[in-house]
Amino acid sequence: MPREIFISHSAEDKILVGPFVDLLQTGMNISIENIFCSSIPSSGIPSGQDFVDYIKNKLKDARVVIPIITRKFFASQFCLCEMGATWISGKRFLPLLVPPLTYGDIKGVLLRTQVTYINEPDKLDSWVDDFCKAMGMEKLSFARWGEKRDEFLKDLSEIIPRLEAPSIVPQNQHQKVLDELDSYKEQLGEELKEKECLQEYISKLEGIKDQEEVVKVKKRYTSIEDTYKDLVEKAKEKLDPLPNIVVECLFKYLNKDPMHVSLEDQKEVFLAQDNDYIYINTDDYTCSLNTEDLTVNEAIEAVCNLGAFLSKANANFIDEKTKEYKLAPSLGNRRFWVQVLRQHF
After folding, report:
1. Straight-line distance from the first to the last Cα atom of the chain, in angstroms, rounded to the nearest whole number
2. What is the pTM of this model?
3. Which residues pair with residue 342 across a beta bridge?
4. Considering Cα of 109, then 50, then 131, then 193, what sign does the dihedral take?
5. Is the bond preceding residue 258 a cis peptide, omega within 30 degrees?
């Protein structure tokens, strides 16, 4: 039987999560059979099950996800991934915030999400109303709920000071986790869209006999083609404002080749330096990109995104583009820049 309530929490916050699950049972008459909480033996992961796969399946089954947000929660990559998966799936998300964390601590992570302090009675009452609506339950008897809530809050006042703070994570590592989470969210979103598109694509093909029409439909519904076209257009858009000599320098930069200043290019090179696009090393007369310049930086990012796509594209797609262009679609191929990105340098 699917468990409709998923408690997302750090395993190191077990002393808090146990009483909260008890509150759900005694104060709201929720059966333990309807709750998944990995820290509770009767509601957690059976022996012999793959930990990650089991949690993924339970998250998929859930109707409501309740993150218990503590300092340890943000230090757990599992918790952050569960939160990201919840956003992607569109499930009802009812987070509870545990002091000493404040709204200011989470505003960059839970932007535009209603978050409730777990230790404030009135706000907890409002949270319960939202929970009942999400679960399709009737409104609770206040007498029963109020008594159990007060017992929980009394215990909570002693539990919170015992919750350990996580080891301090360097800011760059924290940002890396958040960036990876954004990347996973974007990837999952694209996969869901691709699945819907593929189903429509199959239904279209089933009724087509003409081969030319089949080719047209394939191009229309192949998301990899659309993604590629968007990346190419974005790269062209960001490269076009740059002078040819700067594009040449960017080409060399991406391919880790030094850019030497020739006599015939001196005028363009010095003009590019005057406009802050590049630096000139007078020791060996080589050029370096000014990566702090916004126009240069955006061009590098757009071209690198295209390069990353090409490096991960399947062999069939690369073969198709090679036949279409009569050259290898690669950022290391100067003809690709000229023919596809329309850059002449």
Report:
1. 65
2. 0.48
3. none
4. positive
5. no
CATH superfamily of 5-165: Toll/interleukin-1 receptor homology (TIR) domain (3.40.50.10140)
Alpha carbons within 13 A on the beta-carbon side of 339: 14
**CB of 17 closer than 8 Å to CB of 68:** yes
Long-range CB contacts (within 8 A, 24+) of 184-193: 184/81, 184/84, 185/84, 185/87, 185/88, 188/84, 188/85, 188/88, 189/88, 190/223, 190/227, 192/88, 193/223
For 188, residues 6+ apart whose C-beta sits below 8 A from its C-beta are 84, 85, 88
Report whether pLDDT(283) > 90. no
User: What mean pLDDT do residues 30-37 have?
Assistant: 90
Residue 305, both tokens: 């995104």
The string of pLDDT tens digits covering residues 160-219 is: 998 877 665 566 666 776 676 676 666 666 666 665 665 665 566 556 656 666 555 555
Enumerate residues 6+ apart whose C-beta is below 8 A from 168.
none
List C-alpha distances in Å: 93 to 89, 99, 208, 254. Answer: 10, 19, 43, 43
**Alpha-carbon span 218 to 147, nearest angstrom:** 62
User: What is the rounded distance in angstroms from the CA atom of residue 136 to the CA atom of residue 134?
Assistant: 6
Confidence of residue 333 (pLDDT cuts 50, 70, 90): very high
**In 3D, which of 27, 239, 41 has the Cα closest to residue 137?**
27
Q: What is the DSSP letter of 256?
A: T
Q: Are 70 and 7 in contact (CB under 8 A)?
A: no
Residue owning tokens 């998250």: 59
Residue ranges covered by each domain of the chain: 5-165, 169-221, 223-345
Task: Give the closest residue to 68 by CA, choosing from 1, 200, 148, 156.
Answer: 156
Sign of the dihedral defined by the CA atoms of residues 43, 19, 126, 97, in that order: negative
Dump pLDDT digits (tens) for 74-120.
878 778 878 777 777 778 889 999 999 888 887 555 666 789 999 99
